[in-house]
Each structure stands twice: as C-alpha cells, then as structure tokens.
Amino acid sequence: QVQLVESGGGLVQAGGSLKLSCAASGSIFSINAAAWYRQGPGKQPELVAGTTSGGSTTYADSVKGRFTISRDDAKNTVYLQMNSLKPEDTAVYYCNARIGPIIGAKNYWGQGTQVTVSS
To answer: What span, in angstroms and rounded, lies between the C-alpha atoms of 109 and 104?
Structure first.
C-alpha cells in the first residue's frame, strides 16, 4: 500500500523559513512527477510547485524566488523549501506524487500539513 507521509509544517513568523518533506513508502517504484498544493482558509486549492521525473520544475507566480521544490530519489522523498514566508502563505500543504511504472502509474496524496505564518 503506497503512502505519502508529509512533515515539516508548523508556525513561523513572517520572513521565516520552513522545509516540508513528503516521503513515499510501500512501492518498489520511485516517484515520477510530484507537486505541492495548498489550500488557504476560504480559498481554492492551488498548485504551489511541481517537478517532473526529468527534474524540470514549475512554480506559482506567488512563490517564485521564495520556494524551491527538490527531490531525493534515493530516499523517495520530495521537499519544499519555503523562505521569506508571508502570512498569505498560511495554508494546508498537500503533497501529490505519481508513482508506478510508465504505463499504469497512479497519483497519490499526502495527508496534508499545516503551515501558519504570523505577521
């Protein structure tokens, strides 16, 4: 049974940093593509950052230059380094990863981790 376990959320002051981790377990396959999403209070979910199996990355305009998505394939883990945090970054952050063979890979979601940025 494939699971994504997130960690690293918490309370931080504006201007601070946090690093989220998303570790995959229960599969013989490595993470293919992965992404971080977030949903703030009263807001729609949004894509924050994504990475492909080839290492390409994409970011929401609101986090460019502040957030960095990375991966450690040996640990089957994806990270989101968040710097210069702002109160508007407050949200539940979810990891999404595509895991499996080239044909038949499936999408999985983490349980979410709360990030709260105080002003």
So the answer is: 17
